[in-house]
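Deliverable D2.4 — example input (structure tokens):
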């Protein structure tokens, strides 16, 4: 993970954000003379990975002496907008936003910019807005990685595609990446997509229902389930367990959550995508401080959000299956050996 964090920091040091000028100085003092005040607007803490994001953002803010205000909307767009407005009223210098709905969150960007406050879209893109910076993993590529893994291990058969929330642009990017890989095999009739749906709010219960319906439709004849994250993978696996098929159907995932990695070593989930969170969380805080101090944030990539090409810092992800659990998530200290293997 340390190596990946160095890569992320180097990325922070390649395209200048608009109207910024380079300044010297390594302190976190804002133009008003005090510590940089960062507002972190989060959609949810329901999943384990978001709890990890919060801890790491808090850790980095403390390390660099920034003042941090974290607000969690619990999946409610109106609450997230109100919380962001409250942070702006309290005088934050910069906002980091992990949006529940990437389109509705555009109003947060507009409100922040009226007060001269820059906004970073964290992990999820804010659509149709003048957002200043986007930090995430290579989402479309992750979709390609999931589909490529599935196709290599199950080149023919009935597939079920379970996406995330249709209000989350990442869910759409993942599906785009998956279809980039699968479409040629679908066109050759090697792969038949039995069901191609999105799970509202990324809910495991939705994935369970989608999988149950697909099993009923095919008489339990499913060879692969491309689930877009570990939560939906867990829901799909619950349906497979009820049908006596757990471990017999390939199931992908994403986020390397503890329960998912445990399922991988058990054999009921086939793979997940490990997205190191430290470079994302630390990078967001470091970029926030630069934006607040009107220093340039340098990037290598741009992502179009429907309104502009947003400067982006995109962090690499790693496919994890039973063969490399020890050399990835355990070696990096993401989990201990005992947490995964129970020994």
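Example output (designed residues):
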């Amino acid at each position: 993970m340390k190596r990946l964090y160095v890569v992320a920091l180097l990325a922070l040091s390649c395209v200048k954000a608009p109207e910024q000028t380079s300044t010297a100085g390594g302190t976190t003092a804002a133009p008003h003379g005090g510590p940089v005040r960062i507002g972190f607007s989060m959609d949810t803490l329901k999943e384990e990975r978001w709890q990890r994001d919060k801890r790491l953002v808090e850790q980095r803010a403390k390390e660099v002496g920034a003042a941090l205000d974290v607000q969690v909307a619990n999946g409610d767009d109106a609450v997230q907008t109100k919380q962001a407005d409250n942070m702006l009223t309290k005088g934050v210098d910069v906002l980091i936003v992990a949006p529940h709905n990437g389109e509705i969150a555009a109003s947060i960007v507009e409100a922040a910019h009226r007060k001269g406050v820059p906004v970073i879209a964290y992990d999820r893109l804010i659509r149709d807005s003048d957002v200043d910076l986007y930090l995430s993993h290579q989402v479309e590529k992750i979709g390609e990685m999931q589909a490529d893994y599935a196709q290599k291990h199950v080149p023919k058969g009935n597939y079920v595609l379970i996406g995330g929330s249709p209000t989350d642009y990442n869910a759409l990017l993942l599906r785009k990446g998956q279809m980039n890989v699968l479409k040629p095999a679908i066109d050759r009739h090697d792969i038949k997509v039995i069901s191609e749906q999105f799970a509202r709010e990324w809910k495991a219960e939705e994935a369970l229902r989608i999988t149950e319906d697909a099993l009923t439709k095919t008489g339990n004849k499913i060879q692969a389930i491309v689930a877009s994250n570990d939560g939906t993978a867990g829901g799909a696996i619950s349906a497979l367990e009820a049908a006596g098929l757990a471990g017999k159907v390939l199931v992908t995932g994403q986020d390397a959550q503890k329960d998912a990695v445990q399922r991988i070593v058990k054999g009921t989930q086939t793979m997940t995508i490990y997205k190191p969170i430290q470079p994302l969380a630390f990078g967001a805080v470091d970029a926030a401080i630069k934006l607040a101090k009107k220093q340039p944030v340098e990037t290598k990539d741009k992502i179009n959000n429907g309104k502009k090409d947003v400067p982006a810092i995109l962090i690499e992800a790693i496919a994890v299956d039973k063969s490399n659990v020890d050399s990835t998530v355990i070696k990096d200290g993401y989990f201990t050996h005992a947490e995964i293997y129970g020994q």
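The domain at 2-131+277-316 is CATH 3.40.50.2300 (Rossmann fold).
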